[in-house]
Design a protein that fits this description.
Length: 249
């Protein structure tokens, strides 16, 4: 009953990937019936490019990661071999292939996990680095949820590392009509949120997001709430409703 990594514990992700790989055969049968113009794929399905090639279908790597993250992870050869970064300590500083000043790096406490995930094959038989490399080498171009104004140097670096065109498609905000509907719907919980945001001065609001894949423990949620409250600043707090079998807040 799990459909995404957020539904499982970190140590169980390898089983989800192993199950995901079993979609290769059904996917091939589907492509025998319907030929799309293009397949957009994230890093986990490293088998997609090989399957798509059988039918002459181009593949694009649609990254959920930022361009800075992709650049930090490195070129396909490094993702497979790990010859330039052989220890977790290397992940605590910007890599040598960065051609400009950068602060992109992992904190020491997470570096061992990042190193393991990227370079050590799990029970699925592949590491995350190997999966990324297979998709990159089999794709025609890369699409990232970013823009040149925000990540220009990193986008250019990813193009150089991957030897593939990188298409920044923006940050994917809600459709304008959705925002307009929220403005006009006085009963919408978003209505007061947008009204408050509209009254703030330009560049005076900071957005903090932990991503859809992170499950924050209840203790951390409480500590974060206390810290924000003690700051004395106005804030909007959005928290997903917990599942029935989780601790209530």
């Amino acid at each position: 009953n799990c459909e995404a990594t957020i539904d499982v514990q970190p140590e169980q992700t390898q089983f989800l990937k192993k199950a995901y790989d079993r979609l290769a055969e059904p996917m091939e049968k589907l492509l025998q019936q319907e030929l799309p113009d293009l397949i957009l794929v994230d890093f986990a399905a490293g088998w997609i490019p090989e399957t798509a090639a059988k039918f002459g279908i181009p593949v694009a790597f649609f990254s959920a990661y930022t361009a800075a993250t992709l650049a930090f992870l490195g070129p396909p050869g490094e993702l497979i071999s790990g010859t330039l970064r052989k220890t977790a300590e290397h992940f605590t500083r910007p890599p040598d292939w960065f051609t400009f000043p950068s602060l992109v790096a992992h904190r020491p406490h997470y570096a061992p996990t990042a190193f393991k995930n990227l370079h050590i094959p799990d029970l699925s038989g592949l590491s995350s680095g190997q999966r990324i490399a297979k998709v990159v080498r089999g794709c025609s171009f890369v699409a990232v949820k970013s823009c040149k104004e925000f990540e220009g140097e990193y986008i250019n670096l990813v193009e150089e590392l991957y030897q593939r065109p990188v298409l920044p498609i923006g940050v994917l905000p809600p459709p304008p009509e959705t925002i307009q509907e929220s403005h006009s719907d006085n009963n919408s919980s978003w209505s007061t949120t947008f009204l408050w945001l509209d009254k703030q001065k330009p560049k005076s609001v900071v957005f903090v997001g932990f991503g859809s894949e992170y499950k924050m423990p209840i203790e951390q949620i409480h500590e974060l709430a206390f810290a924000v409250e003690l700051s004395g600043l106005a804030f909007i707090w959005i928290l997903r409703k917990p599942l029935a079998d989780t601790v209530k807040i």
